[in-house]
Amino acid sequence: MIKPQAVALGETEADLVVQGGEVLLADRGIFERREILVTGDRIAALPPDGSYTIDEETRVISADGCHVIPGFIDAHTHADSPQTIETAYHRSLLGGTTAVITETSDICSVAGPTGLGAHLAATEKLPLTVFPTVPPQWFYNLFEPPIATDAEREELLEYVSHERVVGVGELDWIFVTGRESPVSSLLSRAQREHKYVCGHGSGCRAEQYAAFASVVDNDHEAITPDEVRERLDNDVHVIGRCGTNRDDIQALTTVLNEDEVTDMSLSTDGVGIRDLLSNGHMNAVVKRAIETGIDPVDAVRMATVVPARHFNLYDRGTLAPGNSADIVILDDLERVSVETVIADGDIVVENGESRVDPRPYEYPTAMRDSVDVTVTEDTFEVSTDVARDGQVRAMGFTNGFFTSSETIAPVRSDGQLKAAPEADILKATLLCRHPRRDACFTGFLVGFGLRSGAVATSITREVPGVIVVGANEAAMERAVRRVDALDGGCVVAETDRVVAEVPLPIGGVATDRPVSDTAADFDAVERALHKREVEGENPLTGIETLSFPGVPELKLSFSGYADIIDCRTVGLAPDE
What we know:
Layout: H1 3-8, E1 16-25, E2 30-39, E3 42-45, E4 59-62, E5 67-70, E6 72-77, H2 89-94, E7 97-102, H3 113-122, E8 129-134, H4 150-159, E9 167-172, H5 183-192, E10 196-200, H6 206-213, E11 218-219, H7 225-233, E12 237-241, H8 249-259, E13 265-267, H9 273-279, H10 282-291, H11 296-301, H12 305-310, E14 327-332, E15 337-343, E16 346-350, E17 353-354, E18 392-397, E19 403-408, E20 411-413, E21 416-418, E22 425-432, E23 440-446, E24 454-457, E25 465-470, H13 473-485, E26 489-494, E27 497-503, H14 515-531, H15 539-544, E28 554-557, E29 560-563, E30 568-570
Parallel strand pairs: 1-4, 1-5, 6-7, 7-8, 8-9, 9-10, 10-11, 11-12, 12-13, 18-23
Antiparallel strand pairs: 1-2, 2-3, 5-14, 14-15, 15-16, 16-17, 18-19, 20-21, 22-23, 22-25, 24-25, 24-26, 26-27, 28-29, 29-30
Helix pairs in contact: 7-8
């Protein structure tokens, strides 16, 4: 007889018993006084009285006056940067998060399948269970020819069948809607393996969304109630988010309360290291959902059983016998105040304090040497020949992912177009850092507010690059050279010095230094940007996403601007 059954039948003792709490019976949507019997890493039973399985070796945890729920699941996040998850997972556990479904496009941007393999190995034995997706970016061919070899794409296809891989994601709608795409081979493999396709439908509407819905299973990009309903109408699972960069929970709350739809999931869509340290992880999302008017039971279910069922994680999301013993004890349900966390049957948080430590992983040497870019001041020159009547096309910064298409008139000097920080006109360059391609493009950015110096980063969403935005070419050169010397990072520089930096040597997108050091470095970079009159929260995210084709309207590619609306590459000339 398997041990969980023996414990349930009283034929052997439990390893751990949670007593005295109000336990969530997720499928009934109620709390009821039960005890939880645990053996090994599994739940054995939920009897009203579990004393029949307790002996002197059984660990008994009191949950008197508390609510007991399953471990939280982040239904969509980006846990591959800027901190490696194996050095930050303990902070997620403090917030009751015991599983995450994560994209891997950052760690794989240059390393591809090697990066995905390393990510899986680094997270294999963590108390927090990591379920990655296979990134589709190596199959895209819309704005640039693919860098990946056939062998690398085949290796990524094989990863779809990995037991912890839950599917493909995130898939930007413009690459598959209304066109033939090499991504189809990846989507077909996911379908054969009964895995899920995580969609990114920002800006996709009406007939286009109906077409997109035919190839995706979920979407986290609904920001209004009507967009939530559009996804539901097309049978696309809705994942709401509240993280460092977005908070769309109110849209879900409106639909839930008006339409009585509760089969939606919650996520962070990425939680920055400073937010993780100060606010926690999914506990903050569930708290936000409750604050907006979602019933606490529904909010908890949207972060436990609902995402578990959607992604076929059938041994998680509820406290049912046979399930993984991921258990969270809350001393205040509405405040989502976490007291104790049990992950895979082990106590990992007790009395609000972590009992586990970071578990660094030795990444392949190639992943610690993935940034190799050569620049001079000439790299950032733009000839006046590209202008039409002195005007060029520029990106308009909006303190978010969206960048508009603008027409501007830069300063002209000695046959070159220059930045004019006093007029809020900056240069923006994307340099390729993949060893198989030597390419870069310099355009212009307005609305960012930088009045001097430059900021550079090797986190360039969905492409293998380095982005630098600057008020002059010399500062841009210094910033990029420092990113190169760090083997990846974020740098603020003036012409004659580096002002602040965050080293990101793992794949050029992550660090395994202590989380407190990383947070302090990001604070310094943000202060340096604000001192140079950059406004708004998380300005680095705006720089990182200047290459991100998942959001309209104009982005950087290696050979020009990526016009997301018309799905084509365009140059600096406004009428091109």
